[in-house]
Amino acid sequence: MASVVPLKEEKLLEVELGELPSWILMRDFTPSGIAGAFQRGYYRYYNEYVNVKRGSIARLSLVLAAYVVFNYRRSHKELKHERPRKYH
Amino acid sequence: MNENLFASFITPMVFGLPLVTLIVLFPSLLFPTSNRLVNNRLISLQQWMLQLVSKQMMSIHNTKGQTWALMLMSLILFIGSTNLLGLLPHSFTPTTQLSMNLGMAIPLWAGAVITGFRNKTKASLAHFLPQGTPTPLIPMLVIIETISLFIQPVALAVRLTANITAGHLLIHLIGGATLALMSINTTTALITFIILILLTVLEFAVAMIQAYVFTLLVSLYLHDNT
């Protein structure tokens, strides 16, 4: 392969396209691995946009909007029947 | 419309997994912790609000009652944030479930009453008979006071459930009515205005928290310290 760093430690944007399946399979899918991934993602977002001295309300509203979208997807099945259509 | 009205109060499950756990834990994401002296805006705002509320609520207690400060402050934060997040579109509000509110009310009330009975037995028992009652009325009054004591946790839980659920239902109904009346022009303006007013009134779900914690607080105070 054309990478210098071992495949396991490469970040996603630096993996080459042909190596992608083996990269995905090599990721840590144990519960502690998944929890670690969520924690890392959370702290990346938090430290970059919220934990600064003059954080804006826009990034926080993005979190709330994502929450709304998440709930909409969850309840889509029941909401399908409330659309104003002639034939449901 | 029949089934849809209450569909938003069903406990959310996804493939049999309790999604409701995630939704209950979500408000904790919005309250970060920090060890610094000067924090970011979010934490500073929350710290200021928390200091304001705790000073106002805990000032009436003596030393022993103030050990409950952490518990009561987390209670008000949790209920407040959960109710406010439930006002977002399509959200699920955990405090609409009576099971959860009973689970919050009964242990807290029982803790207060039992603390009062353990540490000041005579004073706690004396609460069952108000001062200056005429002698023939005493048995009946003791029974009435006992009933009013045991109804306190149920009242706390049902009050919170009923208020939040009724507010959400009203929003659903009036919103549906507005959509249905869109084809008939003149009444729509009036109905949308009513929706707006109702939503702002419902934002006083925060006042609900105030009511909850305050009633709990008063009960704690009376039973524990007198």
TrEMBL record, chain B:
Record's bilayer topology term: Multi-pass membrane protein
CDD domains referenced in this protein's UniProt entry, alphabetically: ATP-synt_Fo_a_6
Main localisation: mitochondrion
Keywords: ATP synthesis, CF(0), Hydrogen ion transport, Ion transport, Membrane, Mitochondrion, Mitochondrion inner membrane, Transmembrane, Transmembrane helix, Transport
GO annotation, cellular component aspect: mitochondrial inner membrane; proton-transporting ATP synthase complex
Catalytic activity: H(+)(in) = H(+)(out)
Transmembrane segments: 6-31, 67-86, 98-117, 137-158, 164-182, 189-222
Protein location: Mitochondrion inner membrane
GO molecular function: proton-transporting ATP synthase activity, rotational mechanism
One Pfam family cited in the UniProt record for this chain: ATP-synt_A
Oligomer status and interactors: Component of the ATP synthase complex composed at least of ATP5F1A/subunit alpha, ATP5F1B/subunit beta, ATP5MC1/subunit c (homooctomer), MT-ATP6/subunit a, MT-ATP8/subunit 8, ATP5ME/subunit e, ATP5MF/subunit f, ATP5MG/subunit g, ATP5MK/subunit k, ATP5MJ/subunit j, ATP5F1C/subunit gamma, ATP5F1D/subunit delta, ATP5F1E/subunit epsilon, ATP5PF/subunit F6, ATP5PB/subunit b, ATP5PD/subunit d, ATP5PO/subunit OSCP.
Family to which the UniProt record says this protein belongs: Belongs to the ATPase A chain family.
Name of the molecule in the record: ATP synthase subunit a
Species of the source: Ovis aries
